[in-house]
Amino acid sequence: MSRIFVDTWAWYALADAQDRDHELAQLAVEDIIERKVELVTTNFVLDEATTLIRYKLGHPAALKFRATIRQLSQNELLSIYRISEAQELAAGDLFERYADQDLSFTDCTSFVVMQELDLNEAFTSDHHFRILGFTLVP
Q1: Cβ contacts of residue 87 below 8 Å, gap of 6+?
Q2: Predicted model pTM
Q3: Is it the case that residue 33 has pLDDT exceeding 90?
Q4: How far apart are CA 136 and CA 5, in angstroms?
Q5: φ, ψ for residue 22 (rounded to 5)?
Q6: DSSP 41-98
Q7: CA 40 – CA 85 distance, rounded (Å)
Q8: Helix (H, G, I), strand (E, B) or coil at 124
Q9: Of 40, 42, 48, nearest to 15 (Cα)?
Q10: What is the rounded CA–CA span in Å between residue 118 and residue 111?
């Protein structure tokens, strides 16, 4: 089964029906599900997405998002990787190396996990993933 990394952009666009990218994200996730692609993310991305949803859409929306994540994980449609100390240190190195790129630390942890898992595709519109050599979906 192929896998795709899901970034905060996708989680937020799917959660916010008013977001300019909501329809695009919805179509992309339908295609991903139809192709039976496993979703992969990290605890850092989920923290970032939950916080963003909480502050932009409210606490009930954040709770709904967390329930969706639990359901996806329980149904084995989503794998959540916990960032280890070694991965966090490697992310710190990337954060320093790409100081000119305005990367978030969470993005750097995502890049480390994607490299370790040999993932090439990211469900995001964040151009930083492309800069580091990943393919963006949609």
Answers
A1: 109, 112, 113, 116
A2: 0.95
A3: no
A4: 10
A5: -60, -50
A6: EEHHHHHHHHHHHHHHH-HHHHHHHHHHHHHHHHTTSEEEEPPPHHHHHHHHHHHHHT
A7: 19
A8: coil
A9: 48
A10: 10
Residue 116 contacts by C-beta under 8 Å, 6 or more apart in sequence?
87
Give the type of residue at 16: D
pLDDT tens digits for range 50-106: 999 999 999 999 999 999 999 999 999 999 999 999 999 999 999 999 999 999 999
- Secondary structure letter of residue 103 according to DSSP: -
Q: How large is the C-alpha radius of gyration of the chain? A: 14
Question: In this predicted model, what pLDDT tens digit does every residue of 12-29 receive, in sequence order?
Answer: 999 999 999 999 999 999
On the 0-12 / 13-18 / 19+ scale of CB atoms within 10 A, 103 is: buried
Provide the 3-class DSSP secondary structure of residue 100: helix
Q: Which two tokens stand for residue 19?
A: 């977001």
